[in-house]
Amino acid sequence: MTREKLYLFDTTLRDGAQTSGIDFSIAEKIAIAELLERLGVDYIEGGYPGANPTDTEFFSEKRTKTARFTAFGMTKRAGRSASNDPGLQLLLEAKADANCFVAKSWDYHVEVALGCTNEENLESIRDTVQAAVAAGREAMIDCEHFFDGYKANPDYALACARTAYEAGARWVVLCDTNGGTLPGEVKDIIARVSQVVPGSHLGIHAHNDTGQAVANSLAAVEAGVRQIQGTLNGIGERCGNANLISLIPTLMLKAPYKDTVELSVRPERLKDITAISHAFDEMLNRAPDRHAPYVGESAFATKAGIHASALLKDPKTYEHVEPESVGNKRKVLVSDQAGKSNLLGELSRLGIDVDKADPKLDALLTEVKEREAKGYAYEAADASFELLARRILGKVPRFFEVKSFRVMVERRFNAVGEQVTMSEAVVKVDIDGETRMSVCEGNGPVNALDGALRKDLGKYQSAIEGLELVDYKVRILDGGTGAITRVLIESHDKTTHQRWFTIGVSSNIVDASFQALTDSITYALLKSAG
């Protein structure tokens, strides 16, 4: 059976950014784009250049290597030419490969939101697509509220889709903007749309307000669309968007999709999807959903007491796919299964060669499990995991050893009578038998520790000149006065342009922070040493 290409369009950085409580920084957008490229999506929609300073700066340069970097925006305003519309011209000037333009396809919105005629709206769609194509961009139109518009006035909704396609749009995306359409309706309406626009040029953008976003996306694929839009972990405004983390394994592992469509996500990359999902949650500073399909900690967990007989005969009885196929692992609560295959896969990804019979591998697996029980989460801290693995496998040089550190916080009045709080850190390190002590002030304990630790590393100093701490996240893992604290630090080397994440866990927030800081510097030295 011949399989057709199905394109994945990620809109985490734009539609997902509308989630309540989420506000991506430039550094976070870059890190998330790297996660998406690691997964293998075809399009990464980076935001709306011109709408805010963050998105404008993000599009000041191309941020992807393999995925098509896509800028989002609106069609030109009615009554203006494409060349005389500042918003459209800003989009065409962004460092992007493609442009996705939102267009009204519900005649009610054309009247009340745009205040123009139906024909003027069609003209805006046509002129915008033609301008993007003339600028060398891949053009696509997001038909906002398409399904509601179709139900209200099918002829006009179809005219919007046809106009975009005939003007040269690579994709005409049908949006279930309020998430109220059901799978049967999606299939029926797309069957009608495909009579005017081929399925090879149709996409689906589903919201999750009835919990149907994934189902609606799959129904659209069955109806012939060949682009799916969605977000990591299904984030988005209100109830979220179609969850690519659920859609990708379903499309790759389940019939009829695995036999009829082909994704750019390689099978070996599918094994990273659990780690990518969890890493994204860590970036958002929130706990991963334990019960998320495919990637949740409990997705393949079974209690023996419920189905004891069948379970003891075959633990896979209650698994619809192999946990390892999505980078997860089986949890049978009467006998926790080893995760050596996952460990070997992660070591291979990091370029660490180890014989699967090496007894140190068992020691590493035991150490990882013990640390995870204490609160460590290595899915989001590749650098700390690599250091832990190399230490146990005997492959990390001893660059320096921290002998002690001390932090003091002082609140006082400065020379002009303002109340200020200053932190001072003292760090003692041993380098080749020589003890060095550094002191540094900072605007907080972590900033002071960071400065003191990096102030004088002797012969290694030049290797960390470009190192900077770009993000710092704290999560309290349990309550009470003895709460365990997890700290995640993102570092960036301005010389090599590399980014990495390190982690620390302790009942003391300063100690947890210092663990992550020490790992960050050690990792920088390791990479510098080649």
From TrEMBL:
Signal peptide location: none
Catalyzed reactions per annotation: pyruvate + acetyl-CoA + H2O = (3R)-citramalate + CoA + H(+)
Recorded metabolic or biological pathway in which this protein acts: Amino-acid biosynthesis; L-isoleucine biosynthesis; 2-oxobutanoate from pyruvate: step 1/3
Keywords linked to the UniProt accession: Amino-acid biosynthesis, Branched-chain amino acid biosynthesis, Isoleucine biosynthesis, Transferase
Main enzyme class: transferase
Family per similarity comment: Belongs to the alpha-IPM synthase/homocitrate synthase family.
Protein's recorded name: Citramalate synthase
Organism of origin: Pannonibacter anstelovis
